[in-house]
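Input structure tokens:
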């Protein structure tokens, strides 16, 4: 059951694998490889649905409900502001660096929205975002591993 919770935490927006790995290693006492793999599985799950369906879903909901129109306008504008400089400078390579930085709001959810907004093809976006997630996962695993050693 703890394996499922790790995947769910990693798949959730904002927290993603940055929260799942410390929970898996520090609370569930998983080994670092198990924590990393489960967190990566959960973290990569949302990428394709976000990129594929975001346009259709946002168009439909925006036409039907004012709340969603306001929400998607806010989300897309915020994402454009946060990612435009790096995407204009680095192109799709920016997705790797954006996701690899283990900070809140720099994970696969935001990168997937950015890839959609800037028209990056979903297959390319998936691989660039996935590589960034792997790098972030390795970094968070190392930090968590040494944090647990220091605290024990």
């Amino acid at each position: 059951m703890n394996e499922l919770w790790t995947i769910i935490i990693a798949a959730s927006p904002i927290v993603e694998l940055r929260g799942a790995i410390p929970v898996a290693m520090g609370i569930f006492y998983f080994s670092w490889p198990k924590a990393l793999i489960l967190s990566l599985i959960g973290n990569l799950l949302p990428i394709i649905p976000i990129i594929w369906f975001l346009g259709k879903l946002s168009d439909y909901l925006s036409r039907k409900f004012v709340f969603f129109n306001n929400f998607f306008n806010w989300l897309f504008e915020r994402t454009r502001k946060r990612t435009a400089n790096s995407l204009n400078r680095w192109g799709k390579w920016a997705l790797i660096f954006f996701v690899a930085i283990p900070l809140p709001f720099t994970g696969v959810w935001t990168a997937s929205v950015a890839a959609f907004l800037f028209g990056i093809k979903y297959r390319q976006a998936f691989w660039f975002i996935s590589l960034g997630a792997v790098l972030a996962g390795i970094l968070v695993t190392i930090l968590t591993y040494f944090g647990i050693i220091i605290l024990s």
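The first helix runs from residue 2 to 11. The chain has eight helices and no strands.
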